[in-house]
Amino acid sequence: MNERSLTLLKEGDAATVLALHGGCGFQRRLHAVGIREGKTLRMVARHPFSGPLVVEVDGRQITLGRGMAQRIAVAQEQ
Amino acid sequence: MKTVVLIGDPNVGKSVLFSRLTGVDVIASNYPGTTVDYSKGRITQRGETLEIVDAPGTYSLEPTNNAEQVAVSLLDKADVIVNVVDSTSLERCLLLTVELLERRKPMVIALNMWDEAQHLGISIDVRQLEALLQVPVVSTVAITGEGVKELVQRLEEARIPDRQSRGGEDQTWAEVGHIVRKVQTVAHRHHTFRDRLVDATVKPGTGILAALVILSALFWLVRLVGEGLIRYGVKPVFDLYRVPITALSGWLGAGFLHDVLVGKLIDGKVDYVQSMGILTTGLFVPFGMVLPYIIAFYLALALLEDSGYLPRLATVTDNVFHRLGMHGHGIIPVLLGLGCNVPGVLSARTLETRKQRFIAATLVSVTVPCMAQSAMIFGVLGHYGMRYIFMVFGTLAAVFVLLGLLLNRTTAGECPEIFLDIPPYRTPSPLAIAKKTWMRVRWFVAEAVPFLFLGVVAVNVLNVLGVIDHLARLMSPFMMGWFGLPGEAVPALLAGFLRKDLAVGMLVPLALTAAQLTIAVTVLALYFPCVATFAVLLKELGAKDMLKAATVMILTALVVGGTLHLVLLR
Predict the structure, then answer these.
(1) Which distant-in-sequence residues (6+ apart) come within 8 Å of B183 by Cβ?
(2) Which residues in chain A are contacts of B173 at CB distance < 8 A?
(3) What distance in Å separates the CA atoms of residue B39 and residue B62, rounded to the nearest whole number?
(4) How high does pLDDT run on average in chain B?
(5) Are B169 and B214 in a shared domain?
(6) Testing the interface with B: which of A27, A50, A54, A66 to mutate, by most B Cβ within 10 A?
(7) Predicted confidence (pLDDT) per residue in B423-456, tens digit
(8) Domain termination site, one of B130, B156, B186
(9) Which of residues 322-381 of B touch A (CB under 8 A)?
(10) Domain co-membership, B228 together with B104
(11) I want to staple B298 with a disulfide (CB 3.0 to 4.6 A). Which of B14, B52, B82, B437 is the partner?
(12) Are A47 and B64 an interchain contact pair (Cβ–Cβ within 8 Å)?
């Protein structure tokens, strides 16, 4: 399993969260919407010009900026 | 009296539950961050009066914005907590639940949206959950009222669970994971065609297309409903009203009372827009010209809010808004502001930093015309052709973007990225839509009409005292030189501080050319907010930032008005 940033996933790809690289507040915000280690994320949409990403976790969609997504490490499912 | 606070994640249905419990109407929608302040109501349960408080949603007890701050501070006043949980996302809601349990206050849990969870194939063992958490758990469907009675009955069973503090967040998650595994089973479901259609509205290409289609359809709906209400509802009534008002005019004879009640006669007849009497213009502007569009706009807004589309719109517009110093959620203050700037400015609370809130509140109050004003602009400029209306709104939109770019560069502070929870699409309930529209229309009538009367009286009194003539003469060189407008437009600008719709109406008797009228209504939209918006800006931004915002407004009005003058009249 190769660790990579969430921002590198293509639309439709799924991956497992390995780590959230960031401070306490950052981790908390992501945890609160269900993004945490071990969860499976699916990339729903990638907006161009460094726009936001939309990911699905537990059947719910979350919009988040690239900066945050950059710090989410995932392992892509084969 | 005991205080019961409803607390839970954003968009789990606290406000709907609150309305169900107390009968107090509050605005509820299908997007996170609808409630930015608290509301109170009372119920009586077995002879005891309880105060119920509806709090804004929060994901955790460590707030990330002002609305969440309100929720967390309400907790201290609570004697009993009702933790409202979204049954369709039990796991993430339980994080807050565990945090709340550690506060050691008597608590009851409402597992709301129970019907939706069942639809999605999620089943939760309520008894087991109750045993694990050691507090009463009631499944509810706030929209239909299912389970609400049981929730009220079980409020007295609210208790502090016997538990040790778990300490770190890892432990909390371990506990949440343990609970979820024990009580919840989820039937597997495949990605359907409907899911793919739903996804299309957040994707870049199809999402922008969908946004254009949806927003145009809503604009069309507003016009259709607004014009329909005028043609078939309001106009016939005011045509009939002409008989008694003409009789009153003859009976009163000339004099101050006639001027205040009926106003000036234009060509020997009452003119609803120009006469400026309380019983003529004072009634016609709010009810004859503005109200139909207010109803139409709020109907369209309610559809937009309750469908769950707004967070998706915020996602596809994030790219633009981020460059203006906000993020996609900034679309919400703009949309609400198109109805009335007051809720527009208030909704800026859901933005995280002071910089974002300042930019959002300033842009809304400077460049977003409220529906009352827009209706009047349509009313007075409409017969000169759509070209001029387009010019006014095009200018305002351009100023929105340019000013946003500028404020983003010059305002100190951070602008964090978008971070938004997208709710599922839901079919809006006709009853809920009707109720919400009615609430907002009622609010408009209660807030707007008194100010309009006040405005009409003030204009008449100042007129009799000769203040208006004096001001007009005094300001004439500046107005003519800078804006290309006659000095007589000054009273309209002053009246705009009370009500902008009235102010637009006051431009009609000045016999302006279409180009002058375009400049005048644009300047009127930009130069200063009405007194209600002014008050809420002061409250939300504080005196210092309010002053900054006011300076921005006046400068913008001068620059834009002067530019339009050069473009249109030279």
Answers:
(1) B90, B124, B125, B126, B128, B129, B132
(2) 31, 36
(3) 21
(4) 89
(5) no
(6) A54
(7) 989 888 898 899 999 998 998 888 888 888 888 8
(8) B186
(9) 322, 327-328
(10) no
(11) B437
(12) no
